[in-house]
Design brief:
4 helices, mainly alpha, about 90% helix
């Protein structure tokens, strides 16, 4: 009888370990599947942001506003995905992944602030308030510069931990 109890306990423990391993693998799979989408949205957001600035500089206000909105949407998509990963899988993440996600969230929050300032600049410049519009444009530029520092930090995390990032 005692042997059967030991055997049952062993089987239950083995089953628990197996389920834990499958869960951990599936959560990392979900994270790994989401990351290219996050990266692509950030790249597209950066492209849209830069195009918005170029369009603003040539005084194409409506097109500039559309590109700024597109940049905002892309940044928000990435930010929400990362926040969901952090909320859902935080226990499964190692320190490097946590640092990567936190750094990227900081980057995206700054990029969203830059977009907000860019949109304000568009509105003021369109209504011929060049002083205020230029001030918002300068603020957007400074904020984006700070965001690029986080972007560089994020890239450094990947370069220093290539075995963790595919």
């Amino acid at each position: 009888m005692f042997r059967y109890i030991k055997l049952i306990i062993f089987i239950v423990v083995l089953l628990f370990i197996s389920v834990s391993v499958v869960y951990l693998d599936s959560s990392m799979d979900n994270i790994n599947e989401s990351m290219p989408e996050v990266s692509d949205s950030i790249v597209q957001g950066d492209k849209d942001y830069n195009e918005s600035v170029e369009l603003l500089n040539t005084r194409y206000f409506d097109q500039s506003r559309e590109k700024a909105k597109s940049a905002e949407d892309n940044y928000n998509d990435s930010l929400h995905t990362l926040q969901n990963i952090k909320d859902k899988y935080n226990k499964d993440l190692n320190e490097v992944h946590r640092d990567y996600i936190d750094t990227t969230i900081n980057e995206l929050e700054l990029k969203l602030q830059a977009v907000d300032n860019l949109k304000e600049a568009i509105d003021y410049l369109e209504s011929y308030d060049n002083y205020t519009g230029s001030a918002y444009g300068s603020d957007a530029n400074e904020i984006m510069y700070d965001a690029v520092n986080y972007q560089n930090e994020r890239n450094e995390i990947v370069q220093n931990n290539t075995e963790l990032f595919n």
